Amino acid sequence: MSFTIYLTRLVCAFLFGSLIGAERQYRLKNAGLRTNTLVSLGSAVFILLSISLTGIAGDPSRIASQIVTGVGFLGGGLILKDGVSVKGLNTTATIWCSAAVGAMAGLGLYWQGLFAVFFIISANCLLRPLGELLNSHQGFDSYNEQLTYTFAIRCKEQIENHLRVMILNAVKNDPHLQLHSLKSSDDNIPAYCYIVADIYALGKHDLIIEKLAGQLTIEYGVTDVSWEVCRNGNE
Question: Against a cut of 0.85, is the pTM above it?
Answer without folding.
Answer: no
